[in-house]
């Protein structure tokens, strides 16, 4: 797979929702998305490991390269379908688990937006607690959900558990719903929705299933400031713009950085190179440079008419890829 190749892809999904009378009800969806849309989710999907290397901002560029490498090596294409690559067959189970972990994250971010309207998704343990004494790492209960989604227009919060694997695993789906039920409320409201998202392979084709938690359990209340949520989401992207090798360029009303990405496939000439441009409005970049996340939280409530350069894909977060 070449993520920078202009192409649309299709993934088959099962969407299961809780019904008070009939239990789980489901339907099948064929979802089409572009390479740039997937690239956007890969690049903006922050990871908990970033807390280990706060003093090294260049790590974000290296992490981006690694994530692109993982996806391109893990997946092949057949028409508009994504398939498991045979190149990873020799890996041991631990190495395959790492790939599955990342794949689950990237597609959970994609599907939470496309199917449920969540404009943001970030890890719960990247968000500081109300008193800033620590992060929202653990609960007293046995299970901990993974990600929190947000729609700033209607100020709704959602809870997500990402799963990935080679096969569809019912036990993992059940465990995921238990993890989601550990949250009773997010900033005083019940998470809507609370969903387990699992990616897996069916006859080598990448598929997905989304199962909504029942919401019957009384979980724990989770509180955090909205501006701290936006800091958790935007801080990794901010680091990309501070990278000394980012080649920051300002033009019109945009700010844009360019990164050179090597070709990881043996089929490509080593002399070839490709570039990814990541951009946003100058106004948003200035607020990120000022670390003024309270103002950013207000800005994002009314950002539905943003423009981006021709040929670019812009997410609801104001970040574009071209």
Integer count of domains: 2
- The dominant shape is globular
Class computed from helices, strands and strand pairing: alpha+beta
Unreliable residue stretches? none
The residue fraction in helices comes out at: 25-40%
Q: Strand portion, in percent?
A: 25-35%
- Mean pLDDT across all amino acids: 88
The gyration radius over C-alpha positions equals 19 Å
Count of alpha/pi helices: 7
Strand tally: 16
**Main sheet characteristics:** 7 strands, mixed
Question: How far from one another are the termini?
Answer: 17 Å
- The side-by-side strand order for the widest beta sheet comes to 2-1-10-9-7-6-5
The helix/strand series, from N terminus to C terminus, equals: EEHHEEHEEEHEEEEHEEEHHEE
Written account of the structure:
It is built from seven helices and 16 strands. By secondary structure, the protein is an alpha+beta fold. The protein folds into two domains: 8-226, no CATH class; 247-321, no CATH class. The chain has a seven-stranded mixed sheet with strand order 2-1-10-9-7-6-5, with helices on both faces. A five-stranded antiparallel sheet has the order 12-13-14-16-15. Helix 1 packs across helix 3 and helix 5 crosses helix 7 (293-299). The longest helix has 24 residues, at 93-116. The model has no long low-confidence stretch (mean pLDDT 88).
Give the helix/strand layout.
Layout: E1 8-19, E2 23-34, H1 35-44, H2 59-74, E3 75-78, E4 81-84, H3 93-116, E5 120-123, E6 147-151, E7 156-164, H4 170-180, E8 183-186, E9 194-202, E10 205-212, E11 220-222, H5 226-242, E12 249-251, E13 254-261, E14 274-281, H6 282-289, H7 293-299, E15 313-314, E16 320-321
Parallel strand pairs: 1-10, 7-9, 8-11
Antiparallel strand pairs: 1-2, 3-4, 5-6, 6-7, 9-10, 12-13, 13-14, 14-16, 15-16
